[in-house]
Amino acid sequence: MLDTQNYYSIGTSGIKWGEKEKKEWFAQQKVKRSYEKEVVSKIEKLRAHFNIEEYGELEYLSNYKLYAVKSINWDSSKPNILVTGGVHGYETSGVQGALRFLKDEAQKYSDKFNILVLPSISPWGYETINRWNPLAIDPNRSFYKDSPAKESSLVIDYIGSLGTKFLAHIDLHETTDTDESEFRPALAARDGVDYAADGVPDGFYLVGDTERPEPEFQKAIIDSVRKVTHIAPPDADGKIIGKLIEQEGVINYDTKKLGLCIGFSDAKFSTTTEVYPDSPRATDEECILAQVAAVTGALDFLIKTNQK
C-alpha cells in the first residue's frame, strides 16, 4: 500500500479532507474548454429533429444550463431508451459520443424507440476536465435519494417527473491515464486512506449490473464496438480494474448500491461503457465512434430479440 502523501499535494496522510482542503482543491481548478462552444452549440443544431428540454441549472462560478434531447414524436406504445453522457465531465467521448449518436444515428431508430439523451450531466466537470463536482463529490457515486451531488439529483428528479419506465439505459464513460495520475490519488487523499496504484485497461470494456447482468445484451455491445476499436483484455488474474470478468470485456457491479448512474433508472437492460482514449491503438475519433457503436449495438440487440 502506498502513502497518499507521496501522491497528492492536498491534505494530511490518513486524515479525511475537511472544508479547508476541499476549498483548497477547488481553488486549483481552472476552466480549460468551453461547454457552450463544444456542447451547447451542438445541441442547438439538433432542434430541427428533436425536442430539447432544459431540465435544470447548476450555479457554480458560471451558470450551466442542463439539456435533455428527446424523440420529437414520443409515442407511449414504443419502448423507451435512456442514454447518458458526461456524468464524469472529463470523459470527453462520453459527451461527444452522445452528441454524435444524436446527430448521426438516433433518427434511424425513431420508428422503434422513444429516445432520451442527457449528453452532458456535469458541465463544470467538462470545462475543468474533472471527475468531481466543485464540492469534491463524484456524481457517479451519488445517484440515490437525497443525493449530495446536484448533477445527480437534477437527473433523478427530471426522470422521475416523466413517469417513464425505460427498457434500456446506456451510460457513456471513459477510463483515462489521469485516473491513476490524478483522480484516484485525489480520492484516496480526500478519504484519508492509502492509495494503491493500479493499471488502466488498454481498450473498451463494459460495466453491467450484478442484479440485471443480461450477458447477451452486453455481448452484443462488445461485438458492435470491436468493429471500431479493440476490447480490453483482462490482467493476469482474469480481472479488469480489480473485478473478475464475466465474459470478454465485461465486468459487473452492484450499481444501485454504489450509486452509479445506470442503477437509478431501473432499466431492464443497462450498461456503462468505458473507452480508453490514451491507448496508442485508438484515436479520439475512434473513441467517439466506439461510444456510438455501443448505443447502436444495444438498440440493434433489442430490435433483434424483440424486447419491449
From TrEMBL:
- Give the annotated active site: 274
Q: Which family does it belong to?
A: Belongs to the peptidase M14 family.
Q: This chain belongs to which protein, by name?
A: M14 family metallocarboxypeptidase
Q: Could you tell me which SUPFAM superfamilies the record lists for this protein?
A: Zn-dependent exopeptidases
The protein's required cofactor(s) are namely: Zn(2+)
Q: Which keywords does this chain's UniProt record carry?
A: Hydrolase, Metal-binding, Zinc
Show which residues constitute the signal peptide.
none
Zinc keyword on record: yes
Could you tell me which residue ranges the Peptidase M14 domain spans? 31-302
Tell me which stretches of the chain form a coiled coil: none
Under the heading Pfam families, the entry gives:
AstE_AspA_cat
